[in-house]
Amino acid sequence: MVNQRRHISGAVYVLLLTAPVLWGLVSQTCNGRSQSPVNIVTSKVLPDERLTPFHFTGYKETFYGSLINTGHSVQLNLPSSIQIKGGNLDDEYKAIQFHLHWGKDGGRGSEHTIDGEKFPMEMHIVHIKEGYDSLAEASKDSTGVAVLGFFFQVLGKHNFKKMSNIQYKFDNTNTKPYFRYNGSLTTPDCAEAVVWTLFESTIPLSRNQLAAFNQLRFYDGQKMVNNYRPVQPLNGRQVYYSSGQLALVSSLLLVVNVSH
Ligand SMILES: [Zn+2]
């Protein structure tokens, strides 16, 4: 009997975790006033000349690693030798992991939206301030975490070579124009500790690559689809834009090949 009860409460907990609208019951922080993701209204963003290009360290290397199914996304842990600074960040930040959010059956599943438009997939590269040892520690600092967000756009029907790993590659000193605002982690405990950077230009993805994500499953056995949190109210927060740097930047190269 006792075991059965335990089993039931476990199932309820999983249900809560997979229903973003109920996250406030898991963590009060998820009901906060500076939550993420948000919809970015481009006619309301403010150009900010302090938003200089990033300097990427270690991003030039090519990393291969197995994706970890975390139960709410797939994640690749990153070495702390990967770092970013610049971009009006108040410190140097080291990478800890990246993960993805996507939709269902090739539908749209980004977390952030631009003028109400949702993209098929969104990648988050999560960094913490150099002085911290964990995401939990960095989450106590209102600017302890810096996430770089990239949107994917489906292009054509290419048959990309099958790969079991993700490969990605950056040029080390360039950026494309980006949006900036202060928000939160998009999964519980939704800590309001994130300096968000969302790059405007999209990364191409084939339909086959996107379809590969539909094979993943949540812990409860359900297909891992629509693993995004809906947009949250801005509550007066301003979104900034790194305009005025177009002439200074070159291309960002990012290659992602995913299969199962
Ligand atoms: Zn995320």
UniProtKB/TrEMBL annotation:
Example of a GO cellular component annotation carried by this entry: side of membrane
Membrane disposition: Lipid-anchor; GPI-anchor
GO molecular function, one term: zinc ion binding
Membrane-traversing stretches: none
Subcellular location: Cell membrane
Cofactor(s) recorded in Swiss-Prot or TrEMBL: Zn(2+)
Domain Alpha-carbonic anhydrase span(s) in chain numbering: 9-243
Reaction equation(s) it catalyzes: hydrogencarbonate + H(+) = CO2 + H2O
Alphabetical list of SUPFAM superfamilies matching this protein: Carbonic anhydrase
Domain of life according to the entry: Eukaryota
Family: Belongs to the alpha-carbonic anhydrase family.
Record-given protein name: Carbonic anhydrase
Source organism: Oreochromis aureus
